[in-house]
Design a protein that fits this description.
Elements: E1 11-15, H1 20-31, E2 35-40, H2 55-67, E3 72-76, H3 82-96, E4 101-104, H4 119-147, E5 150-155, H5 168-188, E6 193-200, E7 203-204, H6 212-220, E8 239-240, H7 241-252, E9 263-266
Parallel strand pairs: 1-2, 1-4, 2-3, 4-5, 5-6, 6-9, 7-8
Helix pairs in contact: 1-2, 1-7, 3-4, 4-5
Length: about 270
Amino acid sequence: MSTAGRLQGKVAFITGVARGQGRAHAVRLAGEGAAIIGVDLAGPIPSVPYDSPTPDDLEETVKLVEKTGGRIIAEQGDVRDAARLKEVVGTGVAEFGGLDIIVANAGVCIPSTWDETPPEVFAAHMDTNVTGVWNTVIAGAPHLVSRGGGSVILISSYAGKKVQPFMVGYTASKHAVTGMTRAFAAELGKHNIRVNSVHPGNVNTPMGSGDMISALERAASTHPTLMNMGTPFLPRFSAEADEISSTVLFLASDDAGFITAEHISVDGGAQYF
């Protein structure tokens, strides 16, 4: 059985839970007492250069959450599909009795130079990273209103504050998430709902697998100087996924009870280099 934690009795809806940061968020919040409603495409998206998550990855997340003593409903679903997200959230709310926390984590990242970015790649960023986040909040927020309040956490990026070289679509999408944070915070505040964004820099996750590194190297070779941007001040280049989860947990908890419309970086200072 899970011991009492900072989120005891809470219910969290998290997207992109099959692996990486989403899995880390699910496990951490469950370990603090939250029941988890999880969703992940658990399948490929065209043009994405890294290995796609699988149904087996999603099942592993279920096992890891249950290992903490937590409860989880995890289903396949696409954040681009608003009706499917509402269905998953409805199933979870019926099972767990309500919803208190939303973590819009799912996203894609496809590197390419500006002149070698086809329309479908730009659209993939907008559809998943922007519309997908919108769909996530719209699916969950009415349940937070009914609950009398809650916390919404949108996962943006270092690219949502500065710029990720050779990723015009990704940078544009993550800046949009930063703007949505402020806009949702303004309107949902009257319902005692806090909305904040988290801005990771480099994180050790499977997003670096497959052809991702070589795709970055190909783009970087066109303008190597830009790759000096975003260097952390601390003596390591990447965070671990669980370090991002620590910030998500803080924002989800009552410890952040008077924090809203904020944009918290976990990037080792990279935004300032």
